[in-house]
Amino acid sequence: MTEGWPATLTEGAVTLRPLRQRDSREWRAVRTRNAAWLRPWEATSPEPASDAPPTYAAMVRRLRTEGREGRTMPFVITFGGDLVGQLTVGGIAWGSLRSAHIGYWIDQRVAGRGIMPTAVALATDHCFTIGLHRVEINIRPENVASRRVVEKLGFRPEGLRLRYLHIDGDWRDHLTFALTVDEVPGGLVRRWVAAQEQRR
């Protein structure tokens, strides 16, 4: 068992829990239904197109291995018990860096309902609780919906990374947003929930 993993995190109807092999049918159904919506933001491989993508089972095995090794925390996002997305904390580094990055996707049917900001806040607080110092999120400039998530949560913009990740078939520029633990002394979930209550 690795520090902070496995973990189940909950705020209201939103839960983050480890990705499981038995999620296969539900995960595939959500991904299939959202294929066109997610394609512009999906990581791709610069290797020849003849290389087949990994199967769901192989993906889960790889992520679970990385989880055991303390490099990744692969969560699914559930809302009211239904699987609605995925959030992965990756690139976990200790030593003098103590940092990680977060990537995510959500079912279009429930987008815009505060689920993803809640999920990101939960994951960020968990990273800080286990001793990480910094969390970053990298987003294509064109991805307005994803940028709204980090803006709502108060992640700091840190600049543009040119041709940073291979997305949707080519190397794409990404904007970097980050938070350090000292910027949210009361926790990000607490700040996010308080901001929502003020809007009501």
How would you describe the overall organization of this protein?
The protein has helices spanning 24-33, 35-38, 56-68, 115-129, 144-153, 188-199; strands spanning 9-11, 14-18, 73-79, 82-93, 99-106, 134-139, 156-167, 170-180. The chain has one domain (9-199): Gcn5-related N-acetyltransferase (GNAT) (Aminopeptidase, 3-Layer(aba) Sandwich), CATH 3.40.630. 31% of the residues are buried. It is globular. By secondary structure, the protein is α+β, with helices and mostly antiparallel strands. Helix content is 32%, strand content 32%.
Short description:
The chain is built from six helices and eight strands. The protein has 200 residues and is an alpha+beta fold.
Task: Tell me the number of helical segments per DSSP (H or I, 4 or more residues long).
Answer: 6
Give the full name of the CATH homologous superfamily: Gcn5-related N-acetyltransferase (GNAT)
Shape: globular
According to CATH, what is the class? Alpha Beta
| Second rung of CATH, namely the architecture | 3-Layer(aba) Sandwich
Q: How many domain modules?
A: 1
Q: What is the percent of helical residues?
A: 25-40%
Derived structural class: alpha+beta
* Cα Rg: 16 Å
Main pleated sheet: 8 strands, mixed
Strand content: 25-35%
Series of secondary-structure elements, N-terminal to C-terminal:
EEHHHEEEHEHEEH
Unreliable sequence segments: none
Q: What is the fold named in CATH at topology level?
A: Aminopeptidase
Average pLDDT number:
94
Give the termini separation.
41 Å
Biggest sheet: strand arrangement: 1-2-3-4-5-6-8-7
The total strand number stands at: 8
